Fold each of these.
Amino acid sequence: MKRLLPATAHPRHDWLAEARASLDLSSQLLLGQVSLMLMPVMDLLTLAPLGAPALAAAGLLNSITALFLLFCFGVMQAMAPLAGAALGSPSGRALARQILGHGLTLSTAMGLLGALAMQAFLRALPALGQDPAVTQLASAYGPALSLALLPAAWLCAWRVGYPLLGQARPLARILLACALLHGLANVLLVHGWPPREGLGIQGLGWSYLLSYGLAAALLAWHDRKAAVPSTPMPTPTPTPTPTPPDDATAARRWILRLLSIGLPIGAVMAIEYTLFAGSTLLMGRHGSLALAAHAVCLQWVTLSFIIPLAMSNTVLTRLSLAIGKEDPDEIHRVVVVACTIAAAFHAVMGACCLLMPAPMAQWMLPAASPDRAAMLDLAVPMLQLAGLLQTFNGLSVVLAAVLRACRDTRAPLLQVFAGYWLAGLGSAWLLAQTQGPLGIWQGMCLGFGLTFVVLLRRVRRRLLHLTDLLPQPESAHAQSR
């Protein structure tokens, strides 16, 4: 049984080189992630003059879109371990590009299904008890937004595949251009320009279609320009067949392979997203002041989550490549460096939440609000717990990325569900009965802490037993122990 070498067996320059490479890749991925997160912020600024119903309609549909894109991005992460292992072979780059091509095919199907699901949601919206004004505006915004889900799904595939191919920098630049175009298109399409009148909230949907579509077109052009001559794709079967299957059969098998690894990842991301949505619903039962304070704390959690999300994408990429090289020493370095950087960031963020919660809450609360003092009283203890919650959450995200690179996704899905929903949301509901609004945050901390411990133990076991990680994807089974 192969074990990782201790840290002292590696030259110091190898560790420093790994730290520099991880930070460089994380900075590029961070730029792309921030660019995408700026787009809904631009929506708020653009729609504010149209009134509260427009803001509510955009927020409702944007939350549905965010859930879909998180799920799609999670499924696409299955490409990382497969392409990383393929890159360890002599013709690895061509094989990795073919895996990316299968990911794009799968994302096309997911984008079309997402568009159909958005249309079904719009038709069902009047029966969900929403304000008629919000329903009417959502019906105007939704059709173009549903069309934008197809190029958005393609972007999810490229966001996973391009860093593996060493193309993280052009990816970040294109995503930044996408965000800047979205801001400009928002103003022109929503409010218009002399002498043309704007389209109102309907223009926001066309802005998403334009910006996502242009980004997808640029990435397709760049990918075609950088492509290398392709080689036949091997079929991912554990034993050779007497006659090789045709291309369509091989493609179906690879897509099924992506689904078998990726669907649990997408489900984990959706579970995490819906946990925060569930906590918000619980908090709403304690009044508007508690809900406003909760929103302030969640905003800080969301902002700080950008860093561990970039780190998780980094460790997924670099660890997949290290496993493809079948290098235990590099596997060890990648995981230790990523976890060290993530722990250092969360130590700083946790200290800020613990030592200066009042100033952090004040920065998010309007100075002219008549209930500012009451909201501060509620937000300060919540924010102190938010620092602990975000530490558990961020480190869990990095550990989950380690398991994804190891093609271990099914068992962690059940563990995350038990930690986030059964322990986290369940204890939040129970503690809210006795501790009030603060009990909801205490319960979420319990759920995230339990999940962190379970994932840490599983990662440790995976790294101590490397024999299951090193076979090439065409001879390995995508299964969890």
Note: The radius of gyration is 23 Å.
Amino acid sequence: MELSLLPEEAITAGHRLADAAEAGDWPALFDLLDAIPALSVNQWRPGAAAWLTPLHQAARHGAPTEVVAALLERGALRGLRDARGWTARDVAEDAGGSAALLAQLTPPRSPLTAELIRTLDANLEWAIDGTIRTVGLLDGYSDQDLRRALRYPPVAVLHEAAAAALHCAIPGLPGGVQVTLRCGYLETVAAGQTRVITQRGAVLTTEGIA
């Protein structure tokens, strides 16, 4: 996410979390997650281009299976990819991780086809962009591709999230965007509006109250 969109306290907390993960200081990392509810186990260093989550760092360190299990219990997503397109399992394999670690980090298979995932990703991004602009957020970004400022939930990992749902925090949008995978389609809730997103596009089903 573009740093200029984040409050200073969020940037500071995010760097502390990333520092702990990069150092392999798992007690400190879990203490931070417990102490600061706004932190996500799936976030990477604020403003960093590598997109390395704590699970990627655990894979790089060859962390004990107990640490990886604790990250997974807190909602770490095995299917999230870094900027190279690598999952945590890919990182562990590259680092010579054990067979037990590789098995633990193997993402579950998505029930969606690759083609449907690509289409839903595009339609989801379009729908979120529209919500952001409709409610008048991100002044100064209206002429830019919002995807350079925000990274939206990838459809490919929704099936492994709790209740098949992810929350996308967007500065200035109370409640952010909740994205839920249904049976072959998506449902989003943002700004009091509910949308159904299919491979054909997005349909507003519930209008927000001004």
Note: The chain has a mean pLDDT of 89.
